[in-house]
Amino acid sequence: MGKHAYAVILDAGSSGSRVYVYRYLKATAARADGSPTDLARLPEIKTKNKWNKKVHPGISTFGTKPEQVGLEHLKELVEFAADIVPKDEVESTPIFLLATAGMRLLPDDQRIAVLENVCAYFQHHTKFALPDCDLHIQVIAGETEGLYGWIAANYLLGGFDEPEKHDHGKGHHTYGFLDMGGASAQIAFAPNVTESEKHAEDLKLLRLRKVSGEALEYRVFVTTWLGFGANEARRRYVQSLVDAYPHSQELPDPCLPVGLLVNQTGVEIAPGSSDLSAENPHLLGTGFFPECLKATYPLLEKERPCLDAPCLLNGQHTPAIDFDVNHFVGVSEFWHTTHEVFAMAHKDKAYDFQTYQQQVTAFCSRDWEDIVADVVAGKKWGKKVDEKTVEEVCFKASWLINVLHEGIGVPRVGLEESGKQQVGGWENKTKAVIDGAKDRGFLDPFQAVDKIDGTEVSWTLGKMVLYASSQMPASTNTSVLPVGFGSNVPGVKVPFDFQYAAGGKSAESSVPPTELPAAPEGVAGKDWHDRIFNAGYARRVPGILIFGLILVLAVYLLCGRDRRLRVNAKLLSLVGRKPGKRPRARGGKLFGGTSPQYERVLEAADPDDFELSEVELTSSSSHTRLGRSSGWATPVSRAMSPDTTRASPKHRVDVDYLSSGSVMATTGVSGLGGRVESKEHLVAPRGEGARSRAGSPSRRGGPLVGPFKENVD
After folding, report:
1. Residues 226 and 105: beta-carbon distance below 8 Å
2. Which of 121, 140, 159 is the last residue before a domain boundary?
3. Which of 201-215, 235-249, 250-264, 438-452 is predicted least confidently?
4. Known binder of ligand: residue 421?
5. Is 233 annotated for ligand binding?
6. In terms of Cα–Cα distance, which of 547, 688, 553, 556 is closest to 609?
7. Cβ proximity of 356 and 443 under 8 Å
């Protein structure tokens, strides 16, 4: 066993899955060989460009064929990782698969099936460490993805390890994080002291640990804007054009280069094509970028009511951003749209609003044929700039500019050289921001990045930093606080929804149980709640208990009056009471009791006429029926003819067991309700065997009423 430890993380995205292999020094080696400076840092994570691999498509495409996800999708990735990790380290190397957008859209049953098959494949076809599938293999929320990205960016920039070199003023030394994909966008940042105190309940508590064992704590705000990714914004924009020109076959689009013809999904249409005369309208590029900016601004939906001020986009609450101390880095689409197309002019330079807008305006006003000949065919702006990228860049640029400056309120560096901009009643920028950005770079209010010091800014790196940090033993044995994140609850060291970095409560943690409060009423606590009350658990355990209860009750009722009396006598003797004269029942006869009002007599029947059939157990939230009272509902018995007693599956005993206070009725992945069904009624055949006398008075007060046979004295 060497001095290095490894971890394997799979990013299961919507378009494909990418595996990353990471390495770090084990705690003993890091402390033995480390200098005081090294000990005061977070664990050093190492990876290489050749230590990651991507396959297509995403695992969400296996929703209808989950059993094939292993051999057809995961096999290539895990074999790739196994070739990198030293053979003697494989069994101690944890493997994680964290799924994002694509898997979030699958129906519950398909998502669960895919994850279960991923788990099964890892367990049976790899030797990587997998102590808990529910925690190592999961679909993460957009907020979690954003928090991991925030960790990765600050780790690479040095905001954690060298705070004195990243002093932004007011004691602030971390960077904000922006991410934009196709469907959503995320923001994560640590507000200034004033905003942190004002909005403490909106923040996430994040705890890391240095190599020395010293704990680091941060309060971070994270949110996701669903539908605000580049592709979803484009879809909404095209729909707005269709609505604006309801009777037009050709829709003028200022966000396309001059003369470019595309259909509503963005596929280019050749001039003279029959597609131009099709029923669906098509788009014609007019290349007027200022108009494009105006047309995309409404997509920010800033007019939506803000129920918890302040808000930025879509009426979603966001604490005020003090750009004097909050400097942001943007990845994914923020990088591709600002740097990839204009790589020659922007490579390794900070985002400059004025320069960028001038370049985009000039580019988008060009004729499409000239762009194809010059930029695409001539590779003038790099090999990565293909025809599809150029088609989309004008819209994406306008959307990005609006999100950054009109939505989030990032100061327009290079244009707004003085003055203050007020958005939503709070200050977004000051002149000090511009004056402080001496050499541009990361002291600007915003900078787009792809790699920092040669390492890709990936949210998987943030997950890895968190995990490696948890493997460093704490510096003290008293009140050891675990590494991970959860709700920021004042006075609570380990909140109810705390997610442990190592995938479970760390063995080193000595936090007393009193530090782990239960989830407050009305809070889903989804991260722990769904793991305990998952669909499989919910279907099995309550179902078995209900089946046992119904079975015991049915046997007791069918054993006859004398046998019930003997059973009662034995039960009384077990508790030290002598059987005697039965007390008179009040309000009716229950389980053999007598009534002062009447005595119901049945004609003799053979006890063998009764038989308990097989019970068919189903449990589904779709079968839940709300009872009129809480507690277990009474079984409903219905008589049937002798010839259908055994044969007909349509006749059954329905038992509704939903209780308003029952955990089983309110928990689970998709909710739990249940229904116990039997194929046969627990009734005596009609005819000569047993019939209630015609003159028998009606029963009053008894909870079970039915043709159960009783012996006649």
Report:
1. no
2. 140
3. 438-452
4. no
5. no
6. 688
7. no
Instruction: Look at strands 184-189 and 52-55 and give their pairing.
Output: unpaired
278 to 121, 267, 274: CA distances (angstroms): 48, 14, 7
SS3 assignment, position 5: strand
CB–CB of 173/193 below 8 Å? no
pLDDT in tens, 476-525: 765 688 999 999 998 898 999 999 997 655 434 333 333 334 444 444 33
Reply yes or no on whether the pLDDT at 229 is more than 90.
yes
Distances (CA, A) of 76 to 15, 280, 384, 461: 16, 42, 26, 21
Taking the alpha carbons at both ends of the chain, their separation in whole angstroms is 82
Q: Is 648 annotated as a binding residue?
A: no
Interatomic CA distance for residues 83 and 251, integer angstroms: 54
* Residue 503: CB atoms within 10 Å: 22
139-167: burial string, b at 16+ Cβ within 10 Å, e else: bbebbbbbbbbbbbbbbbbbbbbeeeebe
Residue 322 neighbours by CB distance under 10 Å: 23
The pLDDT, as a whole number, for residue 477 is: 60
DSSP 8-state assignment for residue 71: I
Q: Are 8 and 80 in contact (CB under 8 A)?
A: no
Quick one: pLDDT at residue 479? 62
- DSSP character at residue 425: T
Strand partners, 24: 5
Is 640 within a domain?
Answer: yes
* Angstrom distance (rounded) from CA 561 to CA 556: 10
Query: For residues 79 and 382, what is the distance between their CA atoms, to the nearest angstrom?
Result: 33
Task: Name the H helices within 215-332.
Answer: 230-244, 289-296
422 annotated as ligand-binding: no
pLDDT confidence bin for 389, thresholds 50/70/90: confident
Contact 328, 196 (CB under 8 A): no
Residues of the domain holding 558: 541-678
Closest to 136 (Cα-Cα) out of 265, 300, 9: 9
Which own/partner pairs from 32-36 qualify as long-range (CB within 8 Å, at least 24 positions apart)?
A: 34/211
Half-sphere exposure of 335 (CA within 13 A, CB side): 17
Residue 87: inside a domain, yes or no? yes
Domain containing residue 84: CATH number: 3.30.420.40
pLDDT, average across residues 543-555: 74
- Give the C-alpha separation, 394 to 259, whole Å: 14
Instruction: Look at 6-10, 222-226, 603-607 and tell me which has the smallest mean pLDDT.
Output: 603-607
Q: Exposed (0-12), middle (13-18) or buried (19+): which is 609, by Cβ within 10 Å?
A: middle
d(CA 652, CA 648): 9
pLDDT at 420: 37
Q: How far is CA 502 from the centre of its chain?
A: 18
Residue from 321, 294, 300, 328 nearest 424 by CA: 321
In a domain, 685, yes or no: no
Strands 176-180 and 137-139: unpaired
> Which has the higher per-residue pLDDT, 237 or 693?
237
Strand, coil or helix: 676: strand
What's 74's DSSP letter?
I
Q: Is 309 annotated as a binding residue?
A: no
Q: How many domains does the chain fold into?
A: 2
Task: Give 674's pLDDT tier (boundaries 50, 70, 90).
Answer: very low
DSSP for 176-236 reads EEEEE-SSEEEEEE---HHHHHHTGGGSEEEEEE-TTS-EEEEEEEEEEEET-SHHHHHHH
Percent of the chain with pLDDT over 70: 67
Just list the catalytic residues.
145
Q: At residue 616, does pLDDT exceed 90?
A: no
Q: Is residue 126 part of a domain?
A: yes
